[in-house]
Every structure is written in structure tokens, then in C-alpha cells.
TrEMBL record:
Residues 1-23 form the signal peptide. GO terms for molecular function: hydrolase activity. It comes from the Bacteria. This is Alpha/beta hydrolase fold domain-containing protein. It comes from Pedobacter rhodius. The keyword Hydrolase applies. Gene3D superfamilies: alpha/beta hydrolase (3.40.50.1820). Keywords: Hydrolase, Signal. Residues 142-347 form the Alpha/beta hydrolase fold-3 domain.
Length: 372
């Protein structure tokens, strides 16, 4: 998506299909999940060409999204300034266009949305709050952090995930527009993420939410932020989340892992982009070893039970595996699931990618169990 806000009624409806069009999704049972689901909507999505060299195992629906993304002809993100990079199309654009081109049914939102600006150190940030239309509450509360390498993307790009969590879990979701780099260097995003969590605790009751049932969820850079929120809550002796869901999180700084090497040229995320994100967010490369960035170096003891979701065709695949192992070694209960044949950013694509439908159902299942 070009970095501009669409009319919200259109954006919410189209992006929400990531979850709500597939509410009856299959539930996977194995850690390395290659399941697919029957769907008349996705049956029509067939790739135009052969599987790319960097992803020979890619699923047809996933490949169709990538082909659409490539068709826009955007310049490589790592060759652009941050301002210009934010104007590039995103995987969400590709999904939205496929939905339109294939006349897919778009369900009506099951949530109401409101916006709220809150004060943080050095400025303000915006929150988008999703509240279930049915039920009186108090609802569970999820604080959600979007991806984008701390540099790009916004609440619209990741609306499908946030809205879908609210609808599938039956929870109030607060999606956090933390400030982006390079205008705001490390650790600004991390500080904003925790400030939003503190605000959520203090204002839960006013949001028709239960302050004793709060979880954190994040994708990619947002997965890193979510884990850091749990760590900060523990260290500051405030209520820690009851659960955290980390979707292909950034968890360490070594770009020579097997998955970085194998998927160095993958789309929509590649190794060069990760280097670009790191350079934009950090002031010096020494900061890459900071435990806030390299979560595998952090003290992980006493963190909440954790769900980790990874994608096979993703430079960050091994980050998720390493973090799962480190959390387990620290005594944290960890459930993890890898989805084969899909790439980074697949999680919000359930209307067109069956594996995303399964992953979202799994995340919702884990959260509902934690809230009980």
C-alpha cells in the first residue's frame, strides 16, 4: 500500500478479510504445518509462472500474491530513502487487488473502531482500538504491534491482523502506531510500545476490557516489540501479559543464519532489506547486540507463555526458532508452529492464503486458552 490512509470504511472492510472471511478455519495439529484448506475463493488463484528460484516450495496462492507484488514494478526498498520506501506497494496491496480482481466476498466488520492519541516521552502516538460489536464485556484485551522493520508500514497495512484478532478472540485490540525510524532512532519504538501497554492497563476498564486479561501480539519488528514489552513489565514489576504471540519476530542480529542464507533473495523480505532496516533504526551497529534487538541475549526468565509462528520461506525463520529455544531454556512455556510454503508477511493474508487462515486460527486458539 502506498503510504497514505484509505477511507477507513474501505480499508477496514477489505483488510479485515484476512481473518473474517475465513472464520471457520482448520486447526493445525503439527509443529511443522503444511496444511491447506478448501476454498472456492483461493481456488481461482493460480500463479502465472514457475516457482521463484528463492522459493521452490512456495504454495500457489502465496506465489500469486508475490507475483502481484512484483507486478507493481517498485524499486528495491533497500535502494530508497525511508520516505520513498514508505510509498512502495506492500503485500497488503497485492492481497487487496487480488480480492477485487477475483470478486471475493468481503464480510462486514464485527467490530467498531475508534482512534486515540496518547502522550509518550517526546511526543504523541496514535492507537486504533477495535471493540467487538456483540457482547457487553468486559472483554479480554490485546495490545498489537505491527511490522515494518521499525521503519515502514502503518496501522492500515496490518489492519487484517488486528481486526481479525478482535473478531476471532472476542477481544478489544489496541493497535499501536509507534514512531518510526530514521526520524526516531532506537529505542524510540521500544519505549512507545511499552508506553502503549501501560496506557492499556490503566484504561482497560474504560475500554470495556478486563485489566487482568491482557496479552501482547506482534509481527516481525512488532514481534520484537511485544516480547520487549513483556520483559519491561517484568522488570518494572507491573502486570505482565498473560500470553504473547510472536509472529516471525526479529530476535537476533546475525544475518548469517541458515534461513538468512537460503532466503537471502526472497520476497517480500530479503537479507538486504533487513540490513537497511537495521541501519535506519540503530544509531550504531553496536546497538544490534543490545538485548532489546537481540532477544536471544536477553534475560527471558519469568516471561508469559509464548506462541511463536514462523514461515518457511523467510530470512527470519531461524530467528523464531532460536527465540523459541531460548525461551524454553529459560523455563517459559512455548508453543511454536512453522508454516511451509509461505513467506514473511503471510499471516494477514487468510482470504487468499490457506496457511494464513490456519495460522490465524492457531493464534486465536492460543489466546482464547490463555484468557480462560
Amino acid at each position: 500500500m502506498k503510504n497514505k490512509f484509505y477511507k477507513l470504511s474501505i480499508t477496514f472492510c477489505l483488510l479485515a478479510v484476512g481473518f473474517t472471511a475465513c472464520n471457520s478455519g482448520t486447526k493445525t495439529t503439527t509443529d511443522n504445518d503444511s496444511s491447506t484448506t478448501d476454498s472456492t475463493a483461493t481456488a481461482a488463484l493460480k500463479p502465472a509462472g514457475p516457482a521463484p528460484e528463492w522459493g521452490k516450495t512456495i504454495k500457489p496462492e502465496m506465489q500469486t500474491v508475490i507475483e502481484k507484488l512484483v507486478s507493481y514494478g517498485d524499486k528495491p526498498l533497500e535502494t530508497l530513502s525511508a520516505v520513498d520506501a514508505r510509498k512502495n506497494h506492500t503485500p497488503t496491496d497485492a492481497v487487496m487487488d487480488l480480492v477485487k480482481e477475483n470478486n471475493m466476498t468481503i464480510p462486514q466488520p464485527k467490530v467498531d473502531t475508534t482512534g486515540k492519541d496518547i502522550d509518550v516521552t517526546g511526543g504523541k502516538i496514535h492507537l486504533r482500538i477495535y471493540t467487538p460489536k456483540e457482547g457487553k464485556g468486559p472483554f479480554p484485551l490485546i495490545v498489537y504491534y505491527h511490522g515494518g522493520g521499525f521503519v515502514i508500514a502503518n496501522l492500515d497495512v496490518y489492519n487484517a491482523s488486528a481486526q481479525g484478532l478482535a473478531e476471532q478472540v472476542g477481544a478489544v485490540v489496541i493497535s499501536v502506531a509507534y514512531r518510526l525510524a530514521p526520524e526516531n532512532k532506537f529505542p524510540t519504538a521500544h519505549n512507545d510500545a511499552f508506553a502503549a501497554y501501560e496506557w492499556a492497563i490503566k484504561n482497560a476498564s474504560d475500554l470495556k476490557a478486563d485489566p487482568a486479561k491482557i496479552a501482547v501480539v506482534g509481527e516481525s519488528a512488532g514481534g520484537n516489540l511485544a516480547a520487549n514489552v513483556s520483559i519491561a513489565a517484568r522488570d518494572k514489576h507491573i502486570m505482565i501479559p498473560v500470553h504473547q504471540v510472536l509472529v516471525y519476530p526479529i530476535a537476533q542480529a546475525n544475518m548469517e543464519t541458515d534461513s538468512y542464507k537460503m532466503y537471502a533473495d526472497a520476497k517480500p523480505l530479503n537479507k538486504a532489506m533487513m540490513g537497511w532496516f537495521t541501519e535506519k533504526y540503530l544509531t550504531t551497529m553496536i546497538e544490534a547486540q543490545n538485548p532489546k534487538i537481540s532477544l536471544v541475549n536477553a534475560n527471558l526468565k519469568g516471561l508469559p507463555a509464548t506462541t511463536i509462528i514462523t514461515a518457511e520461506i523467510d530470512p527470519l525463520h531461524d530467528d523464531g526458532v532460536m527465540l523459541a529455544n531460548k525461551l524454553s531454556d529459560a523455563g517459559v512455556k512455548v508453543s511454536s508452529r512453522n508454516y511451509e510454503g509461505v513467506t514473511h508477511e503471510f499471516f494477514g493474508m487468510a482470504i487468499v492464503v490457506p496457511e494464513a487462515k490456519a495460522a490465524q486460527a492457531y493464534a486465536a486458539e492460543q489466546l482464547k486458552a490463555a484468557f480462560k
